[in-house]
Design goal:
This protein is α+β, with helices and mostly antiparallel strands. It has one domain: Jelly Rolls (Sandwich). The chain has three helices and twelve strands. The strands form two sheets. It has a seven-stranded mixed β-sheet with strand order 1-2-12-4-11-6-9. Strands 3-5-10-7-8 form a five-stranded mixed β-sheet. The longest helix has 13 residues. The chain starts with 5 loop residues before the first strand and ends in a 5-residue tail after the last helix.
Length: 218
């Protein structure tokens, strides 16, 4: 994981921020790594969006503990969330028609969570309707246990417009105007969300955390 700067909240876990760039042709092979989930220790937060012409996003994460994995997610538009194993097989799905996979996804959305084994996994976010030109901001949170010592925030920026004839599967560095030091990372994170069109997602995620995990956990 490419970890950026670290900053601490007055009452809460240490927050580590990583800034990444989206790609125009997204697949499991170029999934952005967002960190490792660990029982009562590390929690992962993803802020991104399906932008114009972007059909799906992929993120890779690792589970270091055996236990109940909880997932909170919010979206502004029609989108589907799936969890895939290392082999690329879907093992949890937000689509109700998938039945057992949907039931597993629903248990992950509950305060109890779903039993999970250590390993490498992927999150896929894809469109389910609307126009391909519609932007769909979303946030995802993955957590095990009720205590959090470290929050790992991944903020993803829009893919750059390709040059004529250029390879479209481009991973680039984030814009320079959202860099900051450890004392200003809170403001930098919000600035990054503005650039990505996600400036309101942090408040939405706070609401999700309070509902699933109780107040004071973010």
């Amino acid at each position: 994981m490419e970890v950026g700067s670290e900053f601490s909240t007055p009452k809460g876990p240490r927050v580590w921020e990583s800034k990444k760039r989206d790609v125009l042709q997204d697949s499991l092979k170029n999934a952005r790594e967002v960190g490792r989930v660990r029982m009562n220790n590390a929690r992962l937060n993803i802020f991104s969006s399906l932008t114009e012409g972007d059909k799906k996003d992929h993120f890779k994460f690792f589970v270091d503990s055996t236990g109940d994995l909880k997932m909170a997610n919010f979206k502004e538009g029609e989108a589907r969330f799936q969890i895939l194993n290392k082999q690329g097989r879907v093992i949890a799905d937000s689509d109700e028609s998938t039945r057992l996979l949907y039931q597993r996804f629903e248990r992950m959305q509950s305060s109890e969570g779903e039993k999970w084994k250590p390993g490498e996994y992927f999150v896929r976010v894809s469109r389910t309707g609307g126009s391909i030109n519609d932007k769909i901001p979303y946030s995802i949170q993955l957590q095990m246990g009720s205590d959090v010592k470290n929050d790992y925030d991944t903020i993803e920026y829009e893919a750059p417009e390709p040059e004529p004839g250029a390879d479209q599967a481009v991973i680039d560095t984030p814009p320079n105007n959202v860099e900051g030091n450890a004392s200003t990372q809170g403001g930098a994170m919000l600035a990054g969300m503005l650039v990505a069109g996600l400036n309101y997602m942090d408040a939405m995620l706070d609401s999700a955390v309070e509902l699933l995990f109780g107040a004071g956990n973010r």
